[in-house]
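Incident log entry.

Two folding requests arrived from the same account within the same minute. Monitoring flagged them as a possible duplicate submission, but the sequences differ. Recording both here for audit purposes.

Request one:
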Amino acid sequence: MEVLLVSIIAFIIICVIVYLFDKNKEKLIEKFEIEKKEIMRCPVCFKEYDDLKLKECSNCESYLDKTTKYILPDKLKKQIISIIFIIIIIAIVVIGGYYGISKYIEEKERLEKYDNDISTCYDLIKNKSDYEEFSNIIEKHKNEENFEEDAYKHFYIAVDERIENIKNGSEDKELVDMLHDIKSSKLDDDEIKNKIDEKYLLAKSYSNLNSANKYIESQNYKSAFDLLQEIINSNKNKNQEIVNIATNKQNEIKDKAFEQIINEAQTQINNQDYSSAQKSLQNYKDLGNQTILDMYNNVTNEVNRIEVERKAKEAEEERKRKQAEIDAKKDKIIVDTDGKRIYKVYMASNKFSITGNFKGNGHFSVKLLDDNQDFYDLLVNEIGDYVVNTSTDVVKGNYYYLQIECTRGTWNLSWSGTYGS
């Protein structure tokens, strides 16, 4: 761009010089003692000849034109060269000045925008908790090496100022929520992530200290004690100042908190809610209060006794259930009339065997029916005395019906493959 500008200015200057020279040509020739000489010039190869009688160019054989040649004195040539050099220097200085001023203005505008956006980043965090817009501004300056670092410096300043307000008793849930959301998001920069974690812990801890103070004001010492313990645990080996504050407050309310803890547990014990009482006392049994420790041990024994009884009861119920299942599978007489008896049997094996005898002179039969009481197999079908010893294949786990019929006689049978009577 600058080279083009130089060329344009130089062209304009040359045009002006040519115009002035042409307008004042005669005066200039006379003033500067410029010699005029007529020559012959080739319009094609521009070769010049002093002999005015020549008609053709010896180089390209083109017809020559007669023209006037101006011969400048050496002194004038030097002056012209000096003037041209001065003009070029002036042009370069002017363009350089223009370029420098443009760059200065551009850099000034960039710095102003840089500072304004840094200030906006601070304001977004200090007054609006708008981390999304804060990130958008950083993205717009991603090609500027130090912008993100400066933006986060102001981020930390704004957060620290708000934490200081929380420390002095103010509520700032928006700050705590914003820091929680940021630390829960995916941050690529570990240094920033660690800083955010630190700021969140400080903001959350001082906010919890304020909540603990409110619990104390409302005489809810147990809740205050628990919240202070949470602060101590989360800040251990990190923020000793907060740990000391929370520990001192705990010591101030410890006796009243223990009293409320004992009363709450005693109410649960009176209601025979030993499990809840155990949970209520568990976190305090090692804090040096003998009453709490004794209560915890007593309710733990009671919880264990109840658990033993519960397991024993469950075991007995399970035993009864299994026995009931077995009893349901035992052989049952469902029909018992003169000369006919039917048993409902549940097969415990894939083989059903039957032995015994029949005494008499009547008819004796034994049939096996399926679970729909349809005919399955004829095991015995005799008249007169008979010794029974037979078996048949069955399906394990299915119900069958054993039908025994006789006339004028008695029988004595036993079988295997079922759950028995």
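Request two (distinct sequence, not a duplicate):
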Amino acid sequence: MILERYIVRNYIGPFVFSVSVITFLFIMDFILRYIDLFLNKGVEFHIVLQTFILSLGHMFALIIPMAVLPATLMTFGSLASENEITAMKASGVSLYRMIFPGFVLASFLTYGMILYNNHVLPESNHKLLNLLIDINKKKPTVEIKDNVLIDAFEGYKIYVRHKDDKTGEIRDVQIFESDKKGTLLKTITAEKGKLKYLEKDHILRFELETAEIHEIPRGTDPSTYRRSVMRNYIMNIKDIDRSLKRSERTYRGDREMNVKQMQEKIENIRGDILEVRSKMANMATSQVQDALVLLNPTVRDSVLNGRGAAAGTDGANRRPADRTGRPRIQPRVVGSERPAAPPPSRIPSKVPNTRKALESQKEIKDSYLRQINRYRVEIHKKYSIPFACIVFVLIGSPIAIRMGRSGMNMAIGLSILVFLVYYICLIGGEKLADRRILSPVFAMWAPNILFGVAAFLLIRSATREQSVARWRWRNPLKLIRRTS
């Protein structure tokens, strides 16, 4: 147990360092993604901080598994560079015993991340999305700047050549007022004035001096033009409430649900699919029954001759005549009377309508199946990504033992390469599963299977003290010799 505790202690420092570096990268991505939104909307600092804290929810779902691989590479690389791996082997310690402490730590991380993804992550995603929706609904903070045309107010465009931020005085003002369709209604110009914001009433007030108003009066001849000059003119732009209105959205997407909620959603969708299939079966059965009616020669002749419903009905009761014009007597078997047929004039028109209805129901069913696949993808993702902790330990340990002297550069470069391949496989599998090209199970577990097989080959080659390429090329030759 002394050896195991020693390896575990060597894991702590690199793991904390890896988590810190990767978290910093995610924070920079968060800042670049939302900085424009926060500045344009004038979001307060505590709202920005709350958004950041909620964003850490989905960040840590990826940060923790990603930090395992560089931590493993640095831990075993350090042990190998200091010849401690050689000393362990000389003492009879197997490679499996060296990897076992990291495997146990990764197993605990996997179990904790599964609980985290199922309970904490959905709630943080739900609150974060609600907050982002409220921020997007928030009215922007408009700062009147010199020589800038401001069009953030609905129905107004404002241009000010000069503004004094201390006194609120403005000069060479031009205000263009338009309706909802964008038609210009009024143009106001003034040499100077003052700008005030009434916080209590949410009003932006322009107090203009020597203002000229150019407009076309409503309800008059379009050629009518009116120009007014006022010594003092006050214009108010109302409803300039820049506070954040918080709301609670009850709807939840697939990334805002836990496994139980998604399974219940899948069962409800499957019930809807059964209803759609029942409708399709009824439509098809009705169409087939109408088509079977055409087996009656009288009804078929009536349809082909284009007779109306009444003519078709009379023709159904009329017996065919012979050459003399007399009705031909046909034998009839008792109990073989056919059921009354629907009016034949309605039969041909049902065919295209039924086809369109069936195609519409099929599209509905396909949309339900895509929804099920999307929920199943999210369910398996909650397990497959945490399981990557174990896979990264298994694949990182033998690589670091064999290449331990390469140092930090090897750990960083190899981690980036593995992350890139893993992420491409994960995202590609998710897209293919959403389109029903791949099974959600295979799509989400394929990266772990791929790297798991690679880890098995690396561990096997490391225990035999041979390179992967050597093992890979010699075994087919041995296999051929054995079979010959």
